[in-house]
Each structure stands twice: as C-alpha cells, then as structure tokens.
Amino acid sequence: MELTRELANKVVESKWADIPSSVRNEARRSFFNWLGCTIGGTRHEASETALALACAFTGPRQATAIGTSHRLDIFHAAWVNGISSHVFDFDDTHLRTVIHPSPPIAPAILALGEYRPVSGADFIHAFALGIEVACRIGNAVCPAHYNIGWHSTSTAGVFGAAVAVGKLLGLDQQQMAYALGLAGTQASGLRENLNTMGKFLHPGHAARDGMTAAFLAQRNFTASERILEAPRGFANVLSQERNLDEILDGWGSRFEVLVNTYKPYPCGVVLHPIIDACLHFAREEGIAAADVESVRLQVNFLVQEVTGKRHPQVGVDGKFSVSHCVAVSFIDRRVEEDQFTDGRVLDPQVVALSDKVVVAVDPGIAADEVRMELVLRDGRRLTRHVEHALGSLKQPLTDAQLEEKFRRLCADILKPQQIDRLVEYCTTIVELPDVERIARTAAVS
Amino acid sequence: MELTRELANKVVESKWADIPSSVRNEARRSFFNWLGCTIGGTRHEASETALALACAFTGPRQATAIGTSHRLDIFHAAWVNGISSHVFDFDDTHLRTVIHPSPPIAPAILALGEYRPVSGADFIHAFALGIEVACRIGNAVCPAHYNIGWHSTSTAGVFGAAVAVGKLLGLDQQQMAYALGLAGTQASGLRENLNTMGKFLHPGHAARDGMTAAFLAQRNFTASERILEAPRGFANVLSQERNLDEILDGWGSRFEVLVNTYKPYPCGVVLHPIIDACLHFAREEGIAAADVESVRLQVNFLVQEVTGKRHPQVGVDGKFSVSHCVAVSFIDRRVEEDQFTDGRVLDPQVVALSDKVVVAVDPGIAADEVRMELVLRDGRRLTRHVEHALGSLKQPLTDAQLEEKFRRLCADILKPQQIDRLVEYCTTIVELPDVERIARTAAVS
After folding, report:
1. What's the Rg (C-alpha) of chain A?
2. Long-range contacts of B120-123 (CB under 8 A, 24+ apart)
3. SS3 category, B170
4. Given an 8 Å threshold on Cβ–Cβ distance, is B227 in contact with A190?
5. Which chain A residue lies closest to B45 (C-alpha atoms)?
6. B interface mutation test: which of A98, A114, A188 has the most B CBs within 10 A?
7. What's the gap in Å between the CA of A214 and the closest CA on chain B?
8. Burial class (CB in 10 A: 0-12, 13-18, 19+), B346
9. How far does chain A reach from its first CA to its final CA, in angstroms?
10. CA trace torsion B22, B26, B29, B31 (10° rounding)
C-alpha cells in the first residue's frame, strides 16, 4: 500500500487503548504547557492585531479566543489561538526537527471541542496522533527541509492539525487520505520571517488550514492520495533530502510526544543551559551584576549561529541574543517575558554587561550543555558546567515546574479561581467528559 | 534598495495615468473572462462543497458568492469565488509561466469592492498591478519552480492578491512590503493535486491569504521586507533556479497582462490547436464521426506529456486527454463543459473514436500549433495545419468571442437581463463609479 494511504489508515484505526499511559501523560503535559503559553501570549501586539482582524470578520461565536473576552467561529479561533501560542517563543519543542508541535494542533481541536462534544480522552488521543504525524513527517524531511528555509512548525504542523481534527470528525480512510492531501497542498511558512510577526502567523495559519482540510475531506472534497510520497508531493518538492521510512517505522511502539520538551525561559532553547548557569551564580551564589568582570562561555555551534546577535535593538531580538540573556540573568535574576522588552534590550546597564560576554564554540559541547567561566572584579574565577539544561530531555520540567510556569503566564490575565480550575482540568483531562469547559474557563469574563 | 522594498514602492507609487489604455483594456478582458468562468463554475461539485462549508462558518454577509444566492464575509467570498473560477480549467493563462492570473486576484478585490467603495478604474488599476506582480514573480522562478511541482497559479498568485488588495486599502510602502512578506510566507499549492479538487482549492486559498496579508499589513503586522530575495526567502526556497531581474526589469513599460490569453475550450490549452482542426473538419467540411478511419497528429511534446492519457475514466480527466478531445470534437461538434462528464468519457462511441487517434511528437511544432492528417473510410486523406490556435497570443479571442463565451457560461444560471447588464458593466468598467454593482448583478436572486 502507498505511504499516505497507510498513514491515513493508521490514524483512522488508532484506538485509545493503543495509546500508552506515558504517551497520554506527555500529551497532557504538552497541552498544559500550550494552554499557558497561549493565555499569556494574548498580551502581545501580534495576538491583539490578529484578534482585532478576526473579530471584524468572524462567523458564529462558536469558540473562545482564549485569554480574552472574545468568541469567534472555530476557524478564526484556531487561527488566533495558534498565533497567541507562539508569540513568546515559550512553546514546546521537538528538538530533533525544531518543530513546535502543539501550536498548530491544539488550537484546532480545542476550538472543535466547543463546536461538538469532545471528551478529554478523545481530545488527548487526537492530539497525540496529530503530534505523531507532524513530527514523523518532520523527521522524514528534516534537517534539509528546515535548513533550506522552511518553518517546519507550520509545514509539518498543518498535517498534524488535519489528522487531529479529522480523527475527531470521524473521517473514514479515504477521507483521511484526502485530508492529508489537502493539508500538504496548503503547507507553507518561511524561516525568512522568523524575526518578525510573520513567524507567529505560521501556527495559526497551519491550525486553520489543517482544520479546513479535514472539514473539506469530510465532505468528500477530493485530493491526491499520495501527497507525501509522489514525485510532485510534499517530501520531494519541499526538501532536497528525505527518508520516508521515518513516517511509519515503529508506529504504535515509538511515540514522538515522548521526546517533546518545554521551556523554562521564553527564548531560544540553545540559550537555556547558559541561563541556568547564570541564574545559579546570581541566585544561589549571590553574585551581583556589578561584581562581573567577564563571562566566558564554551558553547554549541548553534548558540553562535542562532543567537550571536550582540546588540539587539528590539525586545524580541533579545530572545535570540546570548549576550542579552546573560546580562538580564545577572541583573534581573529572572528570565521571563519582561526581560525581552524594547526598554530592556536598550537599557545601558544591560548593554554594558552584554559587552562582557565572550563566546567560544566548542565542538564537544551539546546543544543543551555549557561550560561557563565567570571572572569577577575581585579577581576570583568561578566555573560551572551545565550538562543538561533545565527543560531538556535529560532534565525535563517537572509537573510542579510546568504548573508554576502556567500560573505565572496566566497571573495577570485570569482570576485565581479560573487558574486553579484550569490546573485541575489539565491534570485530570483524560477523565473529563468534555474539553469545552477548559476553553470556557480560559475566557476573560 | 532591496528588491522587495523596491517592488512595494512601485506598487504604492503607481498611478492610474501610468497604465496604458492597451493594458487597461486587456485587464478588463481578463476580468470579463474570469467573471464568466466563475459564474459557470458554481455548478460544479467542488464549488458547491466549498460554498456549503463557507456558508456554515461565514461572518457578516458582506460580499456575493457570485453565481449563487449566497452572501459571505469578504474572506469567504474570495475563497469560494476563487475556487469556482478554476473548476472548469477555462480561466486565463499566462503562457510563459502557466499561471492562471485572474483566479487568485479578481475574487479578492471584487469582494473588497462590496466592503468599501471601489471605482471601476481603481479596480482595474489594482487588478493590473496584481497580475503584473504575480506574473513577474512567476517569470523569476519558472519554469524550474513549476517543474519541481509548485502550482504557480497560487504560489505567485498570493502575492498578486496581496498587492491588489493592498493597493485598494491604500497601504504605505512599509505596509506593502509587509504584505509581500506575509503573502510569501503563505505561498502554497502542489501540482500533485492537479487531477483532483485540491487543485481548485489553490486559487481560493491564494485569494483569501493574499487578502489576509494585506489586512494584517494595514494593521502593521510585521514581516520580512526581503521575502523575495533573501537566502531563506521565496525565490531561493521554492525554486532551484531564479532570475530576480525579471521582477523589476521594464517595470511600467512592459506589462504581463498583455500576454494573457483566454481559452475557447474548457480543457488543457495545448489541446486547443487540435480541437480547432477537428472542429474545422466536423463543422466546415461536414466530416461525420462515422467517416473517420484515423486521425494522425504531429504535436508539441507537451501534448504527449500533459494530455497523453488514452482512456480517461472520469470526466475531468477528459480535459487532459488528447484522444478524448478529438473524439468529442467530431461526435459532438463542440467542446464545452458537457463534453467532459463521466458519461461522455465512458461513451462507447467516444471511446471507439479515441482509439483511432495517433499522436507523434514533432520538435518543430509549437505549443499552439498542430499538423493533422485525417484518413477517411473512403480512403481520402485530408490535412490541416493550425499555425496558431484560437485563443493563443497570435490568434486571441475577439471581444465578440469573449462575450459569446461569457453568455454561454452564464446562460443556465442568470436571467437574460442580468447577463446583458454584466456584459455592459464589463465593457464599460473603467467608467463605473463602483464595482459593487457587478457583484450584486452576478447574484442569483
């Protein structure tokens, strides 16, 4: 059987009992992390702009623009919530492909859960399948696909959204193959936009288009049934290298959500071990910014390539500036959204400390690792080796840390009792009779 | 100045007086052709399916789903009308790039013309600019871009829709650059879907997304200002070969709409010279299907490559079957939508005559040319050389032929007085105070 057909069949045939409890739990954690990022992300100019446009043209008020007081039709809700979830660069990361799996998928099925009854178990089942499909398609074409310039979060994510929505709509095998064909023909998103709001559009776009693909397929709107493997299909056209075996090998025994990760800091993931080291010195050893003579880092090459910008001029660029992150770690002793404002990246004290950061690439250093030497004004030299950053696969955020992150992101937006209830819902989601209550509770009244 | 910025500036600075009358007239003809195709195309399963989905989720009833009794918000109207305009493979063709220029652009600005006042002159101005931008971007990346598998109609068309809508919204230079950046990051559409309804989705998708790009840009939603030329921009990522000079060379003196063409028959354009020759024999020389012993064709290689399918099983495949088109030309003595039903491609008489067609590729034959030898049962041999097919650049449809095509497409859908009025509006469009009246008149009451 052909690949796309076989993948469609696997999704259609998948049963809740086929999903191991570890997978269910990790999908639950992914959703919890996504929900907090999305609620927090509503207070960003890009989210507000997208919401205003959606409100002007929305259809029936079927679903919640979460973290706001607005209701939208399910397609606009998926679009807006997809955008909000990505604005802080705080969402989940499938490290192998650099895909952020939840932002294109969760908004689509959460909106659907306000349109028709979806139990918590069905939701987590569809969500896990969506992540599985998106990340496996990503595995098949990355890194070549990403390297040439595709933002794999949306190009692979649109397939994930389509199958997750399609699973909840109860598509048959033929329709599921169409849904994949219609998803692939809408795959888009260029990394050229990564330092702009254009980037945030990508998961919203993928969530809405994946949903469109599934709804059209449900109505037997036809499409290629070979979108993944055909000579003019997704893998050949959007990547110069590919390994299509990745898409089905070990299906049902190996699960990609188990290698999903969650960030403790809202900035480039390769900076996380460095921030860990800096916060250790600042908080645990009481080193003040004024004590620092220089900060010498031995880093993975990605730190230099992705975050080498020395003097960012706008807040968002601080998220991909190693020197800025070091500086605010010492000065503010925390790395949250407030550390990436325009004012913070231009602050003279921050800029001065940034200039004391020296970065050396070391081929022996992994992406979640750093060796740091701190030279103090009094001549002391302190060293620290972070082997695995907080939030990495080897040092994942605990449930308590995820909850703390969630509460921090929601604190200024929802009432305490709403936050408590959402924590409870996200903890017990697989037992909930419906997920509508989650979206409703995440609305600003 | 960088390319994308300069293109944005050209569009913003363009004045109606800069558009020569020949260009205005050809843009008018393109729109007239598009309008007929779209009205006729509403009676297709794909259009009906898309419309049903749009009706279920539409926002404010701002714009007409033309050829129907439904009103939709402007984004859904652009989407549905974009799909309807493409379902018959009867729309316009920019032969160099194989882009169908109008379907992604006209639906977006016609919908906009029902949302805010747009004069006929402003409409044709924006439309000509949209076609110019889409086809020039196509010229820059085709044929490599098309050959690898991109459906250039939508991938280039989304830029055309964005600038046309952006022009009518009065975007400034910065915003127009953002609109291009947001359009490019939504560019999609795979040729793998060409024999499915997925193909028809492409121009609707491009129309809606180009409009989204312009509306977001108007609200200063930021994007890369180098989407065309950047290493990870559109031209590099979506094509293995490119010539970016095509985008601005001769701007304002050379116009791509002047090389736009319109089809007399709703099928693959490379079949048109062959149909011309067959209809000549059938109609002018009175040759009956029963007289035909064999039909020998010397053709351009594209005929074999694109339309070589011998025994299509579904109607739509007949549009890309040379043998089917020869057979129905003799049997039905016309080539309209009725010749491409499932029943027609499976008709035993059609199949029998199809088997008498012999195709030989001749490297000396152009794409709009054919040499035909007709062998009759009585032993006679008739030959015909069509140098330039009807509808080709050298033998364009006359205004009268365009009108006949328009009237035929609308005949079963609109009332005679509606059709008369639309013909009048499309003839005098540059003098109309608004284009809203066109859309309103194209509604089924």
Report:
1. 22
2. B120/B428, B120/B429, B120/B430, B120/B431, B120/B432, B120/B433, B120/B434, B120/B435, B121/B16, B121/B430, B121/B431, B122/B16, B122/B168, B123/B31, B123/B168, B123/B429, B123/B435
3. coil
4. yes
5. A221
6. A188
7. 11
8. middle
9. 51
10. -130
Tokens of A392: 């990495």
Residues B158 and B183: beta-carbon distance below 8 Å: yes
d(CA A268, nearest CA chain B) in Å: 19
What is the 3-state composition of chain B as percent helix, strand, coil, each rounded to the nearest 5? Answer: 55, 10, 35
Burial bucket for residue A69 (CB in 10 Å: 0-12, 13-18, 19+): exposed
Distance in angstroms (rounded) separating the CA atoms of residues B89 and B319: 8
Scan for tokens 């989210």, then name that residue.
Answer: A47
Q: Which residue has the tokens 């975050």?
A: A307
Residue A412 · residue A43 · CB < 8 Å: yes
Report CA Rg, chain B.
22
Angle at alpha carbon of residue B81, lines to B79 and B86, rounded to 5°: 100
* Cβ pair A217, A174 in contact under 8 A: no
- Taking the model in full, what pTM does it have? 0.96
Does residue B192 belong to the interface with chain A, where contact is any CB pair within 8 Å? yes
Instruction: Return the ∠ at Cα B277 (arms to B274 and B281), rounded to 5°.
Output: 140
| Domains along chain A with CATH numbers | 3-262+398-441 (1.10.4100.10), 269-386 (3.30.1330.120)
- Of residues B135, B152, B132, the one with CA closest to residue B239: B152
Q: Is A159 on the interface with B (CB under 8 A)?
A: no
Total residue length of chain B: 445
Q: What CA–CA distance (Å, rounded) separates A2 from A229?
A: 8
Whole-angstrom distance between the N-terminal and C-terminal Cα of chain B? 51
Say how many CA atoms lie within 13 Å of B34 toward its Cβ. 28
Nearest chain A residue to B222 by CA: give it.
A197
Tell me whether B201 touches chain A (CB under 8 Å): yes
Question: What count of Cα atoms within 13 Å lies in the side-chain half-sphere of residue A119?
Answer: 8
Which parts of A73-172 are beta strand (E)? 93-94
Residues in chain A: 445
Q: What is the tens place of the pLDDT at every residue in B210-264?
A: 999 999 999 999 999 999 999 999 999 999 999 999 999 999 999 999 999 999 9
The H or E element that residue A298 is part of is strand A292-299
pLDDT per residue as tens, chain A (445 positions): 799 999 999 999 999 999 999 999 999 999 999 999 999 999 999 999 999 999 999 999 999 999 999 999 999 999 999 999 999 989 999 999 999 999 999 999 999 999 999 999 999 999 999 999 999 999 999 999 999 999 999 999 999 999 999 999 999 999 999 999 999 999 999 999 998 999 999 999 999 999 999 999 999 999 999 999 999 999 999 999 999 999 999 999 999 999 999 999 999 899 999 999 999 999 999 999 999 999 999 999 999 988 888 889 999 899 999 999 999 999 999 999 999 999 999 999 999 999 999 999 999 999 999 999 999 999 999 999 999 999 999 999 999 999 999 999 999 999 999 999 999 999 999 999 999 999 999 999 8
Answer whether B343 touches A (CB < 8 Å).
no
Please state, in angstroms and rounded to a whole number, the distance separating the CA atoms of residues B297 and B301: 12
Q: CA–CA separation, A298 vs A296, rounded Å?
A: 7
* Helical residues (DSSP H) of B14-66, grouped into ranges: 21-41, 45-57
Question: Would you call B196 and A46 a contact, using CB atoms and an 8 Å cutoff?
Answer: no
Q: Give the residue on A whose Cα is nearest the Cα of B192.
A: A232
Q: How far is CA B49 from the centre of its chain?
A: 20
Interface check for B2 against chain A (CB to CB < 8 A): the answer is: no
